[in-house]
Every structure is written in C-alpha cells, then in structure tokens.
Write a structure and sequence with these properties.
201 residues; 10 helices; 80% helix; AgrB; membrane; peptidase activity
Length: 201
C-alpha cells in the first residue's frame, strides 16, 4: 500500500537521523496512523463542505475523538474498509443531524438526558474481565468524566439556544461510540467486517 511505503520512507529517514534505527518499525506504524488519519479527515471535510454539513461533521469528530481516545474501540481488518465505514457513518449521522425530524428537535432536552444516562449505564455494564479497556478499569474513570463534560456543554448550549443540529450530532456520535463497546456493538462491527472481507475490501 502506498501509505505503508511513504511511512516506511519517513520512518527510515527519521530513524537514521535520530539514531533510533531499532525503532524504525515503531516509527513506521506511527507515520501510517498519522497519514491515515490525515487522509480520512481531508476526505471527510471535503465531502462535508460539498454537502453543507461542515459544522455538524466537525462536532461529530470532536465528540467521537474525545470519547474514543479514553475508551478505545474496535477496528475493521483493513485500512480501506475502516475508512469507508467510518466516513460513511460520519456523513450519514451529519446529514441526519443537519436535517432532523421535528420530533427530535421538539424533544431534544429529553434526548440529551436519555443519551447521557444510557451512556453511563452502558459503560458500567461492560465486561469486567477486559482489563485492557480504560473504560472498564474504573467506574469513576475518565470516560465518565468525558460524558459528564459533554452533558454540561450541551445542556448549556441548549439553554443558550445552540443550533439543535449540533447538539444532535454530538449525541449521535457519543451514543454510537459507547454502543460500539458493548457486546451487541462488537457483534455488529464483526458482521460489518465479515461483509467487507467477503467483498475483498
């Protein structure tokens, strides 16, 4: 893959220049992640701008990243499948948030509370035996704090007449992230992964 080749080139040059030749594989992996994320963000923003859903997409990304970095998550087996799935999901959620049904707008305060409460419950009921997941290690861990912070941000935003589509975009992505950590969410991701493998993505 081109990304791997470019990453290998950068890693080799950096390893030689820094004297950490034995860390070349580690550096290559780091460059792959950086380049991969850069491409995803660039493609995502390009699509978002063309569809006039830029603000919804940006807050979706912020909500996702803020919880993902502390909760971890599952990945599809290939870079292409991961990119296609995540981009499609981001755009779909942003489009729905930008053009929400009136019932969601009329009950947005209820949706806010339900979404955050479900998030707390979902986190508390994750399997206790998975010690690699930061969310599971402590019920009072940073993931709870992230959800609580988003709750207050969105609550204040609601009372200060924040654009409803932005509140919904945040909630959509937070809900999707913590749901993906549950057994049901994991099974869905595995099914999607198998589907991509079946079609050679």
């Amino acid at each position: 893959m081109l990304i791997t080749r470019i990453s290998q080139l950068f890693a080799r040059k950096l390893a030689v220049a820094s004297g950490y030749v034995e860390e070349e594989d580690f550096l290559r992996y780091g460059f792959e992640l950086l380049i991969g994320y850069f491409i995803k963000v660039l493609v995502l923003l390009t699509i978002a701008v063309s569809l006039h859903i830029t603000s919804q997409t940006i807050i979706l990304v912020l909500a996702f990243v803020s919880l993902r970095i502390v909760s971890g998550g599952h990945h599809l087996s290939t870079y292409l499948s991961c990119m296609l799935f995540s981009l499609g999901l981001f755009i779909l959620l942003a489009v729905v948030a930008a053009n929400p049904p009136h019932i969601l707008i009329n009950h947005i305060l209820i949706i806010l509370h339900v979404a955050i409460i479900l998030g707390m419950v979902s986190i508390s009921r994750l399997p206790k035996e998975d010690n690699n997941n930061p969310i599971i290690k402590s019920k009072n861990g940073i993931s709870y704090h992230v959800l609580t912070l988003w709750y207050f941000i969105l609550l204040v935003g609601f009372f200060f007449e924040m654009e409803p589509s932005l509140i919904l975009a945040s909630l959509f992505r937070l809900m999707l992230q913590y749901t993906s950590l549950t057994p049901i969410g994991i099974k869905i991701i595995e099914k999607v992964n198998q589907l991509y493998i079946q079609y050679d993505f």
